[in-house]
Design a protein that fits this description.
This protein has 7 helices and no strands. By secondary structure, the protein is mostly helical.
């Protein structure tokens, strides 16, 4: 797992913990995202959590930024409810990834809407390219 992906999964775990509860559904969604989109097995993620590596990687491309932020939205919807804390975490990462302040709320709203529908990465990127 490269440093960018390690950072992404540690950041996603912060979304899991954002509302102060680590639900089984959120953790299962994290594992699903890892396996389905990034070919990362749950054991690899568990090892990463136990390591002392602290990384922060800012995605380099617009596509990567959107996909990483979408993964946060998927985690937020994993337990069928989105808390204010989860929305704040998503906004915070959007800003850290370089999204302009005036664009953050519309982007977050769109990503949460698409995550509720549980569309694939490919379908999401198709919508952004139209």
């Amino acid at each position: 797992m490269n440093d960018g992906l390690k950072s992404h999964f540690l950041n996603l775990y912060s979304m899991v913990m954002a509302d102060g509860e680590v639900s089984t559904k959120e953790k299962m969604e994290l594992y699903r995202i890892g396996e389905e989109f990034y070919n990362v097995r749950p054991e690899e993620f568990d090892r990463l959590l136990l390591s002392d590596e602290i990384l922060f990687y800012i995605p380099q491309t617009e596509e990567e930024k959107i996909l990483y932020l979408y993964d946060f939205a998927l985690i937020a919807w994993a337990d069928d409810k989105v808390s204010d804390e989860e929305i704040q975490v998503l906004k915070s990462f959007a800003l850290r990834f370089g999204v302009q302040e005036g664009e953050v709320q519309p982007l977050v709203d769109l990503l949460l809407e698409k995550a509720k529908e549980h569309i694939s990465h490919e379908d999401l990127m198709r919508e952004f390219s139209e």
